[in-house]
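Task: encode each sequence below as structure tokens.

Item 1
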Amino acid sequence: MPKKPCVPDVVNAGLPSVAVRIPSHPVAQRVLRACGVPVAAPSANTSGKPSPTTALHVYHDLKGKLPLILDGGECQVGLESTVVRVADSVLRPLREGERALSPGMRYRHYAPGGELTLVKGSQENVRALCLAMYREAVAAGRSARILAFEEHLSDYAGAQALSIGSLEKPETVAHRLFNVLRQMDEEGVEALTCEVLPAEGIGLAIMNRLSRAAAFRIRNADEE
């Protein structure tokens, strides 16, 4: 929203607008009530890295930089808030191609240390391309994983495949996504291929985060 003069420039990097988040979590609400004033704070992770979904993730990212971590349990949804612009009393989601007005709008964000490639197309072709990329990476001496939906894990017998949740229940993908990306960092995996969701409903939010994590590196298995 347009920023009023009472909001210090340091809060929003000198931009003419300011974003306001009202958390639903009861622990966060109690902290804000205890403070008695609006709180300006960054996300609890190193910029550009997969977002934390547990207090332990925050500890690994920021240990030694924080005097206290308040553990309210793991995230209920797993994805950050969508950034919207308020203009003439209308809420409009910020989309691709617009100037980045927040860190989450950057070209590459939520990114694991390894190279992540998204693979779209028919499941038969996606399976074939994911396996081909996996074998190519292993043959080159790189550690590799295939990130697949729970329903498709059996398609990747003989390869190291990991579930990112259920295709039939996309909310489970939202819940697991950043946790899986962090696990891949902890294991030092260098090459990752990942199946994709239809970009509709919560799948649209998931694909937005996945696309940024992959730096928009997407291959169409039906065209290869």
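Item 2
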Amino acid sequence: MTIYISHITALECWRSGRFDARLRVPCSGKRVRHPVGSSELIGDADKAARARSRDADTAAFFQGRKAVDVDRARGDSLLLESGLPLGRVSRESPVHVVVPCTCDRIDRVGVRCHVHARPFPPGSFVRLDEGLYASSPELCFVQMASVLPALELLALGFELCGTYARNCDGRTRYGRPMLLTTVSALARYVESARGIPGAAAARRVLKHLVACSASPRETALTLLLCLPRRMGGYALSHPELNYRMDVPDARRDCTEKGYYLCDLYWSQAKLDVEYESDECHTGPSRIARDSERRDDLSHLGVSVRTMTNHQIMDLARFDKAARQLAAALGERVRPYDGFAQACRMLRAAVL
């Protein structure tokens, strides 16, 4: 018997971090390299996504054609523990599975069956264990696009392409060592998934996604600055998130570190915007380190601006900071009659 978990259940599997190894490209060496910076992270994740698109797990979906057994789903709760719902199935918190035919549906408390009679594109499933598969991050994104509003779907896209995870208990887990997927991998999958529910909605938001966000606040800041004016943003060009700035050997003796990570980096203007949270950027020692870091980046020709939580939460202060940033980038903030209302709606959704 083979189970294909999907939708929110598969998403919670990927959010848990327990199955990240299933997404990595196998390496010959014993030591697992941890990439640093957006370029390496995106490169590794995109390579893994391309490898998934060549496996046979998707073709196996139509071979079993057996009904999902809720007892087997409960039995897999030991594998899928750590806050995932398979061990406490109920009418309010069901296990979502996908089956290839209406005759495979099962009407029991704790299991929600989604029938998908058409072929899935390659790379749609990832093997978690013997007889147990989950929707890939790319298919998950499309499946959730059929039920989430556009802004929530955008936030999910940033998370799937970022280094943090929103757990089912509402807490955020930071410092994920890998990306679940990339914007280009999502785009390739969505293009091949035409006709699957959610694909059209997923396609509409792809152009607004940026990879490598390290926190929900970085995601919110990027959306506020870069979404179109009609959506409440300032329509600035997309930055690179957590861009790795390597120090040239010739300047290594004048800096503290060999590289620096820039929160929001615009390469054409050599401009870095740092988000300073209330928790991590207070105290004399941290303030001193931040000052030294700005001096080092300035030595490398990078202009550093800061954005505090107080600025983000205050509409007038954020508007001033966003317009100053636009001027520094040489970009124009065009007037729009309905912007104030769109801005308030966007802020209510992402902050």
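Check on item 2: The two ends are 44 Å apart (CA to CA). The chain has 13 helices and eleven strands.
End of task.
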